[in-house]
Amino acid sequence: MLEKFFSTEPNFILTVARVTLGLVMIPHGFQKLFGWLGGYGWSATLGFFSSQGIPVILGILVILAESFGALGLILGLFTKLSAFGIGLTMLGAAIFQRQNGFFMNWFGSQSGEGIEYHILAMGLAFVLLIAGGGAFSLDWLISQKLK
């Protein structure tokens, strides 16, 4: 079971996908977790989620996925679990923002952001969920020790 959880090939393309998704997600996580980078922090984020009808436990999981999951992706540790959490978070965000259409709000003419970013993140997360973290990942090192 553990072998499958950590399994990955030393593939550099997976490394690029993993680090890219991690670097894109971690600022969002830090906004929600710490209030950095223009965010509101833990309590205010959970309050916002609650005001939108999102249960507190889901809000906590979103914050953990976007912060610790993104850090896990950058390090290549628990890549499949991290990708699963981020993928589900992006699916939820896409459903939540579907009324804004497909495209990002480049010109401020929409009521919010579209779902194209979420789809890209879900695609990268799916690849990592299936194939693992690739080369230069802690998962790869652990998988070699388990063999």
UniProtKB/TrEMBL annotation:
GO terms for cellular component: plasma membrane. Keywords: Cell membrane, Membrane, Transmembrane, Transmembrane helix. The chain crosses the membrane at residues 12-30, 42-64, 71-97, 117-142. The keyword Transmembrane helix applies. It is a multi-pass membrane protein. Coiled coil: none annotated. InterPro entries: DoxX, DoxX-like_oxidoreductase. Its main location: membrane. Pfam families: DoxX. It is found in: Cell membrane. Belongs to the DoxX family. This is DoxX family protein.
